[in-house]
What we know:
2 copies of one chain form a homodimer.
Chain A: E1 7-10, H1 24-37, E2 42-45, E3 50-58, E4 61-69, E5 77-81, E6 84-92, E7 98-100, H2 106-117, E8 121-128, E9 131-136, H3 137-146, E10 151-153, H4 154-160, E11 162-164, H5 174-182
Parallel strand pairs in A: 6-8
Antiparallel strand pairs in A: 2-5, 3-4, 5-6, 7-10, 8-9, 9-11
Amino acid sequence: MKYPNNIQKKIQNPISYKNRGMDLEEELNLSNEYYLEIDKALIYKKPTPIGITTVSYSKQGKIIERAYFKEPSTLDYNGLYRGKYIEYEAKVTKNKTSFPLHNIHPHQITHIRKVLKHKGIVFLIIKINNLVYLLKGDDFIKYIDTHQRKSLPYDFIKTTGYLIKFGFNPPLDYLKLVDQIFFKEE
Amino acid sequence: MKYPNNIQKKIQNPISYKNRGMDLEEELNLSNEYYLEIDKALIYKKPTPIGITTVSYSKQGKIIERAYFKEPSTLDYNGLYRGKYIEYEAKVTKNKTSFPLHNIHPHQITHIRKVLKHKGIVFLIIKINNLVYLLKGDDFIKYIDTHQRKSLPYDFIKTTGYLIKFGFNPPLDYLKLVDQIFFKEE
Protein backbone atom coordinates (compact mmCIF):
# COMPACT_ATOMS: atom_id res chain seq x y z
CA MET A 1 0.00 0.00 0.00
CA LYS A 2 1.42 3.35 -1.05
CA TYR A 3 0.90 6.56 0.82
CA PRO A 4 -0.26 9.29 0.16
CA ASN A 5 -0.93 8.81 -3.54
CA ASN A 6 -2.53 5.43 -3.48
CA ILE A 7 -4.53 4.97 -0.32
CA GLN A 8 -6.78 1.96 -0.69
CA LYS A 9 -10.15 2.14 0.88
CA LYS A 10 -12.40 -0.89 1.11
CA ILE A 11 -16.09 -0.16 0.97
CA GLN A 12 -17.36 -2.83 3.32
CA ASN A 13 -20.99 -2.64 2.40
CA PRO A 14 -21.75 -0.44 -0.58
CA ILE A 15 -25.54 -0.72 -0.32
CA SER A 16 -26.86 -0.64 3.23
CA TYR A 17 -26.64 2.52 5.30
CA LYS A 18 -29.47 1.43 7.57
CA ASN A 19 -27.46 1.67 10.77
CA ARG A 20 -26.21 5.17 10.47
CA GLY A 21 -27.77 8.60 10.12
CA MET A 22 -29.30 8.93 6.67
CA ASP A 23 -27.77 11.34 4.24
CA LEU A 24 -29.69 13.29 1.62
CA GLU A 25 -29.00 10.77 -1.15
CA GLU A 26 -30.26 7.92 1.00
CA GLU A 27 -33.38 9.89 1.95
CA LEU A 28 -34.12 10.57 -1.70
CA ASN A 29 -33.39 7.00 -2.78
CA LEU A 30 -35.76 5.66 -0.11
CA SER A 31 -38.38 8.21 -1.11
CA ASN A 32 -38.06 7.18 -4.76
CA GLU A 33 -38.29 3.50 -3.82
CA TYR A 34 -41.47 4.34 -1.91
CA TYR A 35 -42.91 6.22 -4.91
CA LEU A 36 -42.03 3.23 -7.09
CA GLU A 37 -43.70 0.78 -4.70
CA ILE A 38 -46.95 2.72 -4.50
CA ASP A 39 -46.70 3.27 -8.27
CA LYS A 40 -46.74 7.06 -7.97
CA ALA A 41 -43.64 7.90 -10.02
CA LEU A 42 -40.67 6.33 -11.78
CA ILE A 43 -37.65 8.26 -10.59
CA TYR A 44 -34.15 6.82 -10.45
CA LYS A 45 -30.73 8.05 -9.50
CA LYS A 46 -28.52 7.79 -12.55
CA PRO A 47 -25.43 5.68 -12.06
CA THR A 48 -22.31 7.82 -11.73
CA PRO A 49 -20.69 7.99 -15.17
CA ILE A 50 -17.38 6.14 -15.22
CA GLY A 51 -14.72 5.45 -17.80
CA ILE A 52 -13.57 1.84 -17.73
CA THR A 53 -9.92 1.21 -18.57
CA THR A 54 -9.40 -2.45 -17.59
CA VAL A 55 -11.77 -5.37 -17.28
CA SER A 56 -11.16 -9.02 -16.50
CA TYR A 57 -13.28 -12.11 -16.94
CA SER A 58 -13.91 -14.54 -14.12
CA LYS A 59 -16.41 -17.32 -13.41
CA GLN A 60 -18.61 -14.67 -11.80
CA GLY A 61 -18.63 -12.63 -15.00
CA LYS A 62 -16.98 -9.45 -16.18
CA ILE A 63 -15.13 -7.55 -13.44
CA ILE A 64 -13.93 -3.95 -13.70
CA GLU A 65 -10.26 -3.82 -12.68
CA ARG A 66 -9.74 -0.12 -13.23
CA ALA A 67 -12.01 2.82 -13.92
CA TYR A 68 -12.28 6.53 -13.17
CA PHE A 69 -15.15 8.86 -12.39
CA LYS A 70 -16.33 11.18 -15.16
CA GLU A 71 -17.84 14.60 -14.68
CA PRO A 72 -21.63 14.47 -15.00
CA SER A 73 -23.23 16.59 -17.71
CA THR A 74 -26.81 15.96 -16.63
CA LEU A 75 -28.44 15.93 -13.20
CA ASP A 76 -28.40 13.06 -10.69
CA TYR A 77 -32.02 11.96 -10.77
CA ASN A 78 -34.51 11.72 -13.56
CA GLY A 79 -37.74 10.03 -14.41
CA LEU A 80 -41.42 10.20 -15.14
CA TYR A 81 -44.17 11.69 -12.98
CA ARG A 82 -47.78 12.33 -13.97
CA GLY A 83 -46.83 12.00 -17.63
CA LYS A 84 -44.05 14.59 -17.32
CA TYR A 85 -40.28 14.42 -17.53
CA ILE A 86 -38.69 15.28 -14.21
CA GLU A 87 -35.02 15.83 -13.40
CA TYR A 88 -33.15 17.16 -10.40
CA GLU A 89 -29.83 17.40 -8.64
CA ALA A 90 -29.41 16.93 -4.89
CA LYS A 91 -26.63 18.66 -2.98
CA VAL A 92 -25.65 19.16 0.62
CA THR A 93 -23.61 22.06 1.92
CA LYS A 94 -22.08 22.50 5.36
CA ASN A 95 -21.98 26.25 4.78
CA LYS A 96 -24.52 28.01 6.94
CA THR A 97 -24.97 31.25 5.05
CA SER A 98 -24.82 30.24 1.38
CA PHE A 99 -24.73 27.39 -1.15
CA PRO A 100 -21.44 27.50 -3.14
CA LEU A 101 -22.13 27.33 -6.87
CA HIS A 102 -19.07 25.18 -7.59
CA ASN A 103 -21.32 22.32 -6.43
CA ILE A 104 -23.11 22.53 -9.77
CA HIS A 105 -20.90 21.93 -12.84
CA PRO A 106 -21.15 24.40 -15.77
CA HIS A 107 -22.37 21.51 -17.99
CA GLN A 108 -25.16 20.90 -15.54
CA ILE A 109 -26.21 24.55 -15.59
CA THR A 110 -26.37 24.40 -19.39
CA HIS A 111 -28.40 21.22 -19.06
CA ILE A 112 -30.89 22.86 -16.66
CA ARG A 113 -31.44 25.61 -19.25
CA LYS A 114 -32.12 22.98 -21.91
CA VAL A 115 -34.56 21.00 -19.78
CA LEU A 116 -36.48 24.23 -19.11
CA LYS A 117 -36.52 25.02 -22.82
CA HIS A 118 -37.81 21.54 -23.68
CA LYS A 119 -40.54 21.84 -21.03
CA GLY A 120 -39.32 19.32 -18.50
CA ILE A 121 -39.71 19.75 -14.76
CA VAL A 122 -36.30 20.59 -13.33
CA PHE A 123 -35.11 21.68 -9.90
CA LEU A 124 -32.40 21.48 -7.27
CA ILE A 125 -32.77 19.87 -3.87
CA ILE A 126 -30.43 21.65 -1.45
CA LYS A 127 -29.72 20.60 2.11
CA ILE A 128 -28.43 23.54 4.12
CA ASN A 129 -28.53 24.09 7.89
CA ASN A 130 -30.07 20.60 8.10
CA LEU A 131 -33.13 21.76 6.19
CA VAL A 132 -33.99 20.53 2.70
CA TYR A 133 -35.24 22.96 0.08
CA LEU A 134 -36.57 22.51 -3.44
CA LEU A 135 -35.39 25.33 -5.69
CA LYS A 136 -37.08 25.55 -9.10
CA GLY A 137 -34.74 25.41 -12.08
CA ASP A 138 -36.04 28.68 -13.52
CA ASP A 139 -35.60 30.50 -10.19
CA PHE A 140 -32.05 29.15 -10.00
CA ILE A 141 -31.20 30.25 -13.57
CA LYS A 142 -32.82 33.66 -13.05
CA TYR A 143 -30.67 34.20 -9.97
CA ILE A 144 -27.34 33.25 -11.52
CA ASP A 145 -28.12 35.27 -14.65
CA THR A 146 -28.75 38.43 -12.64
CA HIS A 147 -26.14 38.12 -9.88
CA GLN A 148 -22.37 38.02 -10.12
CA ARG A 149 -21.97 35.71 -7.16
CA LYS A 150 -20.22 32.41 -6.56
CA SER A 151 -22.89 31.18 -4.18
CA LEU A 152 -26.62 31.30 -3.50
CA PRO A 153 -27.29 33.17 -0.22
CA TYR A 154 -29.25 31.14 2.33
CA ASP A 155 -31.77 33.98 2.47
CA PHE A 156 -32.46 33.56 -1.24
CA ILE A 157 -32.92 29.78 -0.85
CA LYS A 158 -35.25 30.29 2.14
CA THR A 159 -37.44 32.85 0.42
CA THR A 160 -37.45 31.49 -3.16
CA GLY A 161 -37.16 27.76 -2.46
CA TYR A 162 -39.76 25.48 -0.90
CA LEU A 163 -39.06 23.66 2.36
CA ILE A 164 -39.43 19.87 2.07
CA LYS A 165 -40.70 18.40 5.33
CA PHE A 166 -39.12 15.27 6.77
CA GLY A 167 -41.39 12.29 7.28
CA PHE A 168 -41.20 8.62 8.09
CA ASN A 169 -42.06 7.09 4.75
CA PRO A 170 -41.19 8.62 2.37
CA PRO A 171 -38.42 10.42 4.31
CA LEU A 172 -38.71 13.40 1.94
CA ASP A 173 -42.10 13.71 0.25
CA TYR A 174 -40.87 16.16 -2.37
CA LEU A 175 -43.51 15.13 -4.93
CA LYS A 176 -46.15 16.76 -2.74
CA LEU A 177 -44.36 20.05 -3.42
CA VAL A 178 -43.91 19.17 -7.11
CA ASP A 179 -47.71 18.81 -7.30
CA GLN A 180 -48.21 22.25 -5.78
CA ILE A 181 -45.48 24.00 -7.77
CA PHE A 182 -45.54 22.41 -11.22
CA PHE A 183 -49.09 21.10 -11.59
CA LYS A 184 -51.02 23.96 -9.99
CA GLU A 185 -52.65 25.04 -13.23
CA GLU A 186 -54.25 21.65 -13.85
CA MET B 1 -2.01 -13.18 -15.68
CA LYS B 2 -4.21 -16.13 -14.80
CA TYR B 3 -6.00 -18.24 -17.33
CA PRO B 4 -8.89 -18.99 -17.89
CA ASN B 5 -10.57 -17.37 -14.87
CA ASN B 6 -8.85 -14.05 -14.86
CA ILE B 7 -8.06 -12.95 -18.40
CA GLN B 8 -7.12 -9.27 -18.42
CA LYS B 9 -8.26 -7.24 -21.33
CA LYS B 10 -7.03 -3.70 -21.85
CA ILE B 11 -9.51 -1.40 -23.51
CA GLN B 12 -7.12 0.70 -25.57
CA ASN B 13 -9.50 3.45 -26.45
CA PRO B 14 -12.80 3.33 -24.64
CA ILE B 15 -14.41 6.25 -26.47
CA SER B 16 -13.56 6.42 -30.16
CA TYR B 17 -14.84 3.81 -32.58
CA LYS B 18 -14.45 6.12 -35.54
CA ASN B 19 -12.19 3.78 -37.48
CA ARG B 20 -14.29 0.69 -37.43
CA GLY B 21 -17.81 -0.20 -38.53
CA MET B 22 -20.26 1.51 -36.24
CA ASP B 23 -22.35 -0.59 -33.94
CA LEU B 24 -25.92 0.19 -32.95
CA GLU B 25 -24.93 1.87 -29.70
CA GLU B 26 -22.47 4.12 -31.49
CA GLU B 27 -25.07 4.99 -34.14
CA LEU B 28 -27.56 5.93 -31.44
CA ASN B 29 -25.03 7.88 -29.41
CA LEU B 30 -24.03 9.90 -32.47
CA SER B 31 -27.68 10.47 -33.33
CA ASN B 32 -28.38 11.67 -29.78
CA GLU B 33 -25.32 13.96 -29.90
CA TYR B 34 -26.70 15.37 -33.16
CA TYR B 35 -30.14 15.92 -31.61
CA LEU B 36 -28.45 17.64 -28.66
CA GLU B 37 -26.39 19.89 -30.96
CA ILE B 38 -29.37 21.03 -33.00
CA ASP B 39 -31.33 21.35 -29.72
CA LYS B 40 -34.03 18.93 -30.85
CA ALA B 41 -34.03 16.54 -27.88
CA LEU B 42 -32.17 15.72 -24.67
CA ILE B 43 -31.58 11.99 -24.79
CA TYR B 44 -28.68 10.26 -23.03
CA LYS B 45 -27.49 6.73 -22.60
CA LYS B 46 -27.55 5.94 -18.93
CA PRO B 47 -24.21 4.84 -17.52
CA THR B 48 -24.14 1.09 -16.90
CA PRO B 49 -24.96 0.54 -13.24
CA ILE B 50 -21.94 -0.76 -11.34
CA GLY B 51 -21.22 -1.76 -7.78
CA ILE B 52 -17.92 -0.36 -6.55
CA THR B 53 -15.99 -2.53 -4.10
CA THR B 54 -12.58 -0.82 -3.93
CA VAL B 55 -11.46 2.73 -4.59
CA SER B 56 -8.10 4.40 -4.20
CA TYR B 57 -7.05 8.03 -4.09
CA SER B 58 -4.32 9.42 -6.30
CA LYS B 59 -3.20 12.88 -7.42
CA GLN B 60 -5.58 12.51 -10.35
CA GLY B 61 -8.52 11.95 -8.00
CA LYS B 62 -10.56 8.95 -6.94
CA ILE B 63 -9.84 5.77 -8.92
CA ILE B 64 -12.02 2.67 -8.96
CA GLU B 65 -9.83 -0.38 -8.29
CA ARG B 66 -12.56 -2.99 -8.39
CA ALA B 67 -16.20 -2.99 -9.41
CA TYR B 68 -18.79 -5.27 -10.97
CA PHE B 69 -21.63 -4.75 -13.42
CA LYS B 70 -25.15 -4.72 -12.04
CA GLU B 71 -28.25 -5.85 -13.86
CA PRO B 72 -30.16 -2.86 -15.22
CA SER B 73 -33.75 -2.43 -14.04
CA THR B 74 -34.59 0.41 -16.42
CA LEU B 75 -33.84 0.89 -20.12
CA ASP B 76 -30.57 2.10 -21.66
CA TYR B 77 -31.60 5.51 -22.96
CA ASN B 78 -33.91 8.13 -21.58
CA GLY B 79 -34.62 11.79 -21.92
CA LEU B 80 -36.91 14.58 -22.94
CA TYR B 81 -38.42 15.21 -26.37
CA ARG B 82 -41.14 17.70 -27.26
CA GLY B 83 -42.05 18.03 -23.61
CA LYS B 84 -42.47 14.26 -23.21
CA TYR B 85 -40.57 11.61 -21.30
CA ILE B 86 -38.93 9.13 -23.67
CA GLU B 87 -37.14 5.88 -22.84
CA TYR B 88 -35.86 2.99 -24.91
CA GLU B 89 -33.61 -0.03 -25.02
CA ALA B 90 -31.36 -0.86 -27.99
CA LYS B 91 -30.44 -4.45 -28.79
CA VAL B 92 -28.70 -6.29 -31.59
CA THR B 93 -29.26 -9.93 -32.45
CA LYS B 94 -27.29 -12.10 -34.84
CA ASN B 95 -30.29 -14.41 -35.14
CA LYS B 96 -31.91 -14.12 -38.53
CA THR B 97 -35.39 -15.40 -37.79
CA SER B 98 -36.17 -14.06 -34.33
CA PHE B 99 -35.15 -11.79 -31.47
CA PRO B 100 -34.49 -13.84 -28.30
CA LEU B 101 -36.37 -12.40 -25.34
CA HIS B 102 -33.57 -13.16 -22.86
CA ASN B 103 -32.05 -9.94 -24.25
CA ILE B 104 -34.58 -8.00 -22.19
CA HIS B 105 -34.40 -8.61 -18.42
CA PRO B 106 -37.66 -9.32 -16.53
CA HIS B 107 -37.12 -6.10 -14.50
CA GLN B 108 -36.96 -4.17 -17.75
CA ILE B 109 -40.22 -5.68 -18.97
CA THR B 110 -41.88 -4.63 -15.70
CA HIS B 111 -40.38 -1.19 -16.20
CA ILE B 112 -41.78 -0.91 -19.75
CA ARG B 113 -45.27 -1.66 -18.36
CA LYS B 114 -44.82 1.10 -15.76
CA VAL B 115 -43.62 3.70 -18.27
CA LEU B 116 -46.66 2.93 -20.41
CA LYS B 117 -48.94 3.29 -17.39
CA HIS B 118 -47.36 6.63 -16.45
CA LYS B 119 -47.78 7.90 -20.03
CA GLY B 120 -44.16 8.00 -21.12
CA ILE B 121 -43.00 7.20 -24.63
CA VAL B 122 -41.29 3.81 -24.53
CA PHE B 123 -39.98 1.48 -27.22
CA LEU B 124 -37.30 -1.00 -28.25
CA ILE B 125 -34.78 -0.45 -31.01
CA ILE B 126 -33.86 -3.83 -32.45
CA LYS B 127 -31.13 -4.50 -35.01
CA ILE B 128 -31.78 -7.75 -36.82
CA ASN B 129 -30.55 -8.87 -40.25
CA ASN B 130 -28.64 -5.56 -40.35
CA LEU B 131 -31.86 -3.59 -40.30
CA VAL B 132 -32.95 -1.40 -37.41
CA TYR B 133 -36.55 -1.42 -36.22
CA LEU B 134 -38.43 0.63 -33.67
CA LEU B 135 -40.95 -1.52 -31.80
CA LYS B 136 -43.48 0.35 -29.66
CA GLY B 137 -43.54 -0.65 -26.00
CA ASP B 138 -47.25 -1.42 -26.06
CA ASP B 139 -46.90 -3.64 -29.15
CA PHE B 140 -44.07 -5.48 -27.43
CA ILE B 141 -46.04 -6.00 -24.21
CA LYS B 142 -49.16 -7.07 -26.14
CA TYR B 143 -47.12 -9.69 -27.98
CA ILE B 144 -45.43 -11.23 -24.93
CA ASP B 145 -48.74 -11.23 -23.01
CA THR B 146 -50.50 -13.19 -25.73
CA HIS B 147 -47.74 -15.56 -26.91
CA GLN B 148 -45.89 -18.25 -24.97
CA ARG B 149 -42.65 -17.75 -26.86
CA LYS B 150 -39.07 -17.09 -25.87
CA SER B 151 -38.41 -14.85 -28.86
CA LEU B 152 -40.05 -12.31 -31.14
CA PRO B 153 -40.30 -13.71 -34.70
CA TYR B 154 -38.64 -11.54 -37.34
CA ASP B 155 -41.96 -11.49 -39.21
CA PHE B 156 -43.63 -9.89 -36.19
CA ILE B 157 -40.88 -7.26 -35.91
CA LYS B 158 -41.10 -6.51 -39.65
CA THR B 159 -44.86 -6.11 -39.70
CA THR B 160 -45.43 -4.46 -36.30
CA GLY B 161 -42.20 -2.48 -35.96
CA TYR B 162 -41.11 0.57 -37.95
CA LEU B 163 -37.95 0.47 -40.06
CA ILE B 164 -35.45 3.20 -39.12
CA LYS B 165 -33.53 4.35 -42.19
CA PHE B 166 -29.76 4.83 -42.06
CA GLY B 167 -28.47 8.29 -42.86
CA PHE B 168 -25.28 10.29 -42.66
CA ASN B 169 -26.06 12.63 -39.80
CA PRO B 170 -27.83 11.52 -37.70
CA PRO B 171 -26.92 7.90 -38.54
CA LEU B 172 -30.34 6.78 -37.26
CA ASP B 173 -33.01 9.46 -37.38
CA TYR B 174 -35.38 7.60 -35.10
CA LEU B 175 -37.08 10.77 -33.83
CA LYS B 176 -38.62 11.22 -37.26
CA LEU B 177 -40.48 7.97 -36.60
CA VAL B 178 -41.25 9.00 -33.02
CA ASP B 179 -42.96 12.10 -34.46
CA GLN B 180 -45.09 9.96 -36.77
CA ILE B 181 -45.91 7.27 -34.22
CA PHE B 182 -46.30 9.08 -30.90
CA PHE B 183 -47.26 12.62 -31.88
CA LYS B 184 -49.61 11.89 -34.77
CA GLU B 185 -52.68 13.18 -32.94
CA GLU B 186 -51.23 16.64 -32.41
